[in-house]
Structure formats: C-alpha cells, structure tokens
Design a protein that fits this description.
By secondary structure, the protein is mainly α. The chain has 2 domains: 9-361, no CATH class; 393-505. The chain contains 21 helices and 5 strands. A 5-stranded mixed sheet has the order 2-1-3-5-4, with helices on both faces. β4 and β5 form a beta hairpin. The N and C termini lie far apart (70 Å).
C-alpha cells in the first residue's frame, strides 16, 4: 500500500501508537500515586511560588523538600485545569506516540519493509510500556531518545558539530522537568569518551583531532552547568543523589527493583534486548561505532532497576536504525529478499508537514472534546478512569464528608500508595506517608513496610508518640494495618470496600 504524498508514514505510526495508548492506558497509565501529588505540587507552585519544604505530611512537615520535577509538575497542573485526568492522559499518550513514531520513521528510512518496522516498534512499546505512567519521567524517555539520536547522527556524519549545541537547551529544560537529566548527561559523557577512545585505537570516530576532543570537553562542561539552571541550584543535585544512592529502595519499591524475569513485564524487555544484540553482532569490528554501544549501559541499568527499561528501549531503537544498514544480515536480506529490504531505493519525497498535520489535528480534536465535556470513546471526555480496584475511589465520598477544616485535627494514617490520592483529592488531611521516597528515606520506608506484617501495634504506638495521635486512618483490607485499626479501641470504621477502609477516631 502506497500512502498519498500528503500523509507521511510518521503520521500513520503516530496514530497507531496514540490510539493504542489512549485505549490501553485508560486506567493503566493512571496507576502511579505520583500522578496525584505531582499535580498538587504544580498547583501549589502556581499559587504560592517555589516550594522548599514538605507541605503534605504531618510526619515530615516543614522539613527540607525540593520538588525537583517542578516544571513537569506545573505542566501537569495546567493540563489538569484544562480537562482533568483526561487531558493528562492525552498529553502522556501524545508525547509517547510522537517519540515512537519518530523512531519508527528513522527505522523505515533504512529501507526495511513497514511490516518489519511495525513488529520492532510494537515489541519496543511493549518492552517500555510497564513504565508508561502519567508523570514527568515521560519527558526523560523523549529527551534521552533525542539525545541518543543527536549523538548517533553526529557519530555517523549525518549531523554537524553545531547541531550538538541543541543539547544545551534540551538539557536546560530537562534539568527542571525530571532527574533523568543525570542519565542524559552520563550518556553524553560515555559517547564523548568512546569517540576519543575509538580515535586512539583506530576505529571509526567523529573526533578527527585533539582540537575536536577539546571542543567536546567544552560542550560537556556547558551541559554540566545546565544542572544549576534551576530555581533550586545545587539542591537539585542533592535530591537526585538522595534518590539514586538509596539502595534500600530496591527492597521496597517495585520500580527500583532489578528486572524480574519471572514477571511478564520483563519478557518483551528481554526480547527487545535480543533484537538489539543480534543486530549489533552483525557488524564487523572495524566498522563499529561508539554510539552504537550506548544501549549497553542502559541495558545493565535496566537489569539493575527495571524503571530504566524504557530508556534502554529508546536508545536501542536509535542504535538499531543506525546499525542495521552496516550488518551482514542487511546485506544478505538485500540479496535474498529485495521485496523486504530495499536500501538503495529512497523513500518517496514528502513535505515535512505530511507527518505532522494529521497527528496535530487528531490531538487538537481530542483536546477540544475533552475540554468541552463531549463524551466519545477513547478520544472524548470522561475516558480517563481511576481503577476502583487500585484506588480508594469508592470511599472518596466519606473522605470528602469528613475532610478537616482549618484548625481541626487532620492527621491521617494511610498506606503508601494511598498518600498521593489523598493529597490530591482531599487536601484537608495531612497524610502519614506518600511515595516521595526522597522525603522519607529508605530506612524509614522499610520500617513502615515491615510494620504492616509484624509488630504493627508497637509501630503504631511508636509513631503516635513521635508524630502525635492520628485522627483518621485509610487502610487496604488484608493488611496488618487494616487488622489493627479494625480491632483497636476507640476507632470506628466509617466505610469499607474491597479496596479501602476509612476509619475515624471516636
């Protein structure tokens, strides 16, 4: 099938991924508690300016807290103002669809058949999809893809040194949106070091002289300085380090744990890693380029912390598109199946807008439907949905009914996941805990997690002595915390569902 000149393959790829994410992510992309408190943080910044202390809990109220994702949080708050969670889901799906459509086009330009490209992209989306949540980390997926593409294009002679300067504004924005800036900067450092090393040993390298190496060093220094181009200065580095250096988090937070090959989410990651390794193995050593190896450290990081899987995926997609034409597999396929791989036939010439106008029209239409309250499946208002099996939405009525006013007792004991939900939906309460691990620290969170299985009563007594008596409790049935409040004297259950139980001190 040949597309008309005014519709590009990128538009088709975008719409396919976009609709799939909107349909499949209706509830699934809204299962992270960070969605809620990120939005509330953005609202506070818009209302009161930059925060420097914890505003949400009574356990750590007033202690130092740096909202290191402040720019992304402001964006989430503005989207929520426009059309609630519908607009947030739309924004997340649009960003991800744009990234994977763009990467699909890069792969198509190698001459591979669209069916093969489609299969690779579907596997890539599946490998990254378990970490598609509505929160600022999605920007890191997009920014790392752009970084890897710039570095790879420069390495292959398709981009001038001047084009690398686009990394500077990208990194300046990135530092204010998400701490994944660290990974982006490390990627640039590894690429530059690889180019110098390849130059020394006589392998292909874009560094033609020591003057070029010095220029790269200057660029890296400028990129490093963008970490300070934030309202929080060096405090950003403090919070990034606090999160990444806390090894205890691997024991208690799923996304910080190593890749678990027994879990279904890991299988497409392994499958996509196999695709990358097989493609890389088809290159002769003397033709190898340093940028083609960039996915390897991300693969190691994904194995160490599964949250890095999407970052491995996008860097590997960039690399596969660059590597494929240089492999012995490509040469064999060009000879044996020219109907499936035609590297010498240029793609049809199309104007740049052929890949843009249809996605833009679809997104604007969806935003208009959502903002206007028009209920249409997938693209209309009311599509985004909080799963009542995961979130305590069925007790929200009593949460709001008993929500404390100014000066009233407001300390709520709650489970780890429910903290963000309460922060957003019933801000009159001060919560016991939420998932901002940089606030609490791994050891404190580990004690909390262990207390729901053993020594619950002693832990609650210790916490009330330290932080003051609780006035409310929101627990999940089947946990030790719920067992405690259900039987503890002086506590009455206001409402219980299969997902949550809300208690009030009598």
């Amino acid at each position: 099938m040949t597309l008309p000149r005014w519709v590009g393959p990128g538009a088709v790829a975008f719409l396919a991924v976009w609709v799939a994410l909107l349909a499949g992510g209706r509830s699934g992309m809204l299962r992270d508690p960070g969605t809620f408190w990120h939005t509330s943080t953005g609202e506070l910044i818009l209302a009161d300016g930059f925060l420097r202390h914890d505003p949400f809990t009574f356990t750590f109220a007033g202690t130092k807290w740096v909202p290191s994702q402040w720019l992304g949080e402001v964006g989430m708050a503005l989207a929520h103002r426009a059309a609630g969670f519908d607009a947030q889901l739309l924004g997340a799906a649009t960003l991800l669809a744009a990234v994977f459509a763009w990467l699909a086009v890069r792969l198509l330009r190698t001459g591979l058949h669209p069916a093969a490209v489609g299969a690779v992209v579907v596997l890539a989306v599946a490998a990254a999809g378990s970490h598609f949540h509505v929160r600022p980390h999605l920007f890191t997926i997009a920014a790392l893809a752009a970084t890897a593409a710039l570095l790879t294009d420069f390495d292959g002679g398709r981009a001038s040194p001047r084009r690398l300067l686009w990394l500077v504004p990208l990194f300046a924005v990135w530092a204010n949106v998400h701490g994944g800036w660290l990974g982006g900067f490390a990627t640039a450092v590894i690429a530059a070091a690889g180019w110098v090393a390849f130059r020394v040993v006589g392998l292909p390298s874009p560094v033609g002289s020591w003057r070029g190496a010095v220029g790269l060093g200057v660029l890296l220094a400028v990129l490093a300085s963008t970490a300070l181009a934030t309202p929080y200065g060096t405090d950003m580095l403090w919070v990034w380090g606090r999160i990444m250096n806390d090894g205890v988090l691997k024991r208690i937070i799923k996304e910080h744990r190593p890749l678990d090959l027994a879990e279904p989410y890991a299988w497409p990651v392994v499958g996509f890693a196999a695709v990358y390794v097989v493609v890389l193995a088809g290159v002769r050593v003397r033709e190898l380029r340093a940028s083609w190896l960039l996915p390897l450290p991300w693969l190691v990081l994904a194995a160490d912390r599964c949250r890095h899987a999407p970052l491995f995926v996008v860097t590997a997609l960039v690399a596969v598109a660059a590597i494929w034409p240089h492999t012995r597999w490509a040469a064999w396929l060009a000879r044996s199946r020219p109907d499936f791989y035609q590297p010498d036939i240029p793609p049809p010439a199309r104007p740049w807008w052929a890949n843009v106008w249809l996605p833009a029209a679809a997104v604007l239409l969806a935003l208009g439907l959502k903002a206007g309250g028009v209920g249409v499946p997938v693209v209309g208002a009311g599509w985004a949905r909080l799963d009542p099996r995961h979130w305590p939405v069925e007790v929200l009525d009593v949460l709001k009914e008993h929500e404390p006013g100014p000066g009233e007792p407001n300390r709520m004991f709650n489970g780890y996941v429910a903290g963000g939900f309460v922060i957003h939906h019933a801000p009159g309460y001060k919560v016991f805990v939420d998932d901002r691990c940089e606030v609490f620290g791994g050891e404190w969170l580990l004690e909390f997690v262990e207390a729901q299985d053993a020594g619950t009563a002693a832990a609650v007594a210790r916490w009330e002595a330290a932080y003051g008596p609780f006035a409310f409790a929101l627990t999940r049935p089947g946990t030790g915390f719920d067992d405690y409040f259900r039987s503890a004297p002086g506590w009455a259950c206001v409402k219980r569902t299969g997902t949550a139980a809300f208690y009030r001190r009598g």
